[in-house]
Amino acid sequence: MKRKKYFGSNLKMYKNVAQTESYLKELADRTRELCMQNPDMELFILPSYTSLETASKSTDQSEIHLGAQNMCWEDEGQFTGEISPVMLEELDLHLVMVGHSERRHVFGESNIEENKKMLAAMKHGFTGLLCIGETKEEKGYGIADEVLRTQIKVGLHGIAAEDLDKVWIAYEPVWAIGVNGIPAPVEYAQEKHHVIRETLRELYGEAADVVPALYGGSVNLENATRLFVQPDIDGLYVGRVAWDAKRFAGLIADCLATGEK
Ligand code: 13P
Prior knowledge:
15% strand
């Protein structure tokens, strides 16, 4: 099954409201032609919470989809500091990220919590972008595949096959993310994406083929095209290199210019 081509960026805890707005405007201007030439391309940006409302008002989401970086699984209640799916619904968002490595490893979230968030995303009609990835230590013990399989099986537990068109996966090895990250070798990334595909198939059969799997973790201008053309990589989920609109648009153009996957 042919899936779309995905390019997205998580802005993490960077850019204030004005910076986010001007970034989105510049990115839209620089990618408009590419979007028109490539109707199967899906571009998305996840700004900070405080920028979401302005971003949603000022962005044409037929060009750039917007999403939140995290969400509580409850609609309301005594959850100080959390943001509910009902609050996100007010902002006309399509996408919610769940289980980014910084949520799991800096803020101690578990697979079970990520599952509750994915179920809440389905209930409220959001696309849930479930992030998975092994730590350096887990890789060292040779259990990366088991970790990925567990994160998928628990993360998607209880999600019906009919809801799979609202599920995206991002494979982001923890050791590859951020300023101290080492980009995953392309062959390694493809191999792990294959494990993801097999696990999804095992759980859902052919229905799983609608679920895209994106690679993230130190994607840069040197490795982007090689990662993008891998058979089981449906797109790139980029941090630092995408936070400059010109550079991100250039990276996307390079990938699309590599031709049909
Ligand atoms: P970097 O591209 O900066 O490594 O970040 C990737 C990431 O965390 C995307 O969610």
